[in-house]
Structures are given as structure tokens and as C-alpha cells.
Amino acid sequence: MLLKKNRVDKKLIDQIFKEGKFLNSPSFTFKFIKKSDLPLKISFIAPKSVAKLAVKRNLLRRRGYSSLKKYFNQFPSGIVGVFIFKKAVDSVLEIENEIKTILNKIN
Question: Strand 79-85 vs strand 21-24: parallel, antiparallel, or unpaired?
């Protein structure tokens, strides 16, 4: 799990949804804005349409955070973003590969 200071708060999430850009992958969407005055912050969202049970949604978020740890420092500074799951993913390797491809699109 990422530290709380490295995750996006609710105010920034609203701002991201209003004026952010997005990148798509098969399992999730990455919505982000570039703010040079803020440090790098990234969060995961698992909506109820993906998994009805909170246990499964939390499991998806935890898997996302654990796979993001490897690539967190490779994101450019000033990016504030949210990964939104489109479907339930069983494999951590699949999540890592999609994070890697989104990271390549940003850079």
C-alpha cells in the first residue's frame, strides 16, 4: 500500500474528473492532471459495477497499489492521477503490464 501522502484525496479526485486527461487500457482507465506545484500522487478506484462486494473491491485496490510500488518512482513528477478499474483482474502481473504500458504512453 502506498503512503497516504502519495495517494489522491477527494478534492483532487473531483478536479481530476472535471479537467483531467485520460488513457485507456483493457482493465482500467488512468485519469490524470499535471500540477507542477504538487508531488506525485496516484490512487486506485474500484467501482461497484466492477465488483459488488466491498471485499473484492478492496482486494483489487490492494493489488493495484502493490503492483504500482515497482513503477511509482518512474512516473514524472507533478502528475496527480487515478486508476479506475473497468473489470476485475485476477493477476497482479496483468496489472503490472498495464501500468507499464500507461507509463510508456505518459513519457
Answer: unpaired
**How many CA within 13 A on the CB side of residue 3?**
5
| Bridge partner list, 59 | none
Using the structure block, give the residue that is written with the C-alpha cell 504512453. Answer: 105
For the chain (107 residues), the mean pLDDT of every run of 10, in chain order, is 87 92 91 89 94 94 91 88 91 90 88
Paired strand residues for 80: 33, 41
pLDDT of residue 73: 86
Is the domain spanning 4-21+29-106 CATH 3.40.50.300? The answer is no
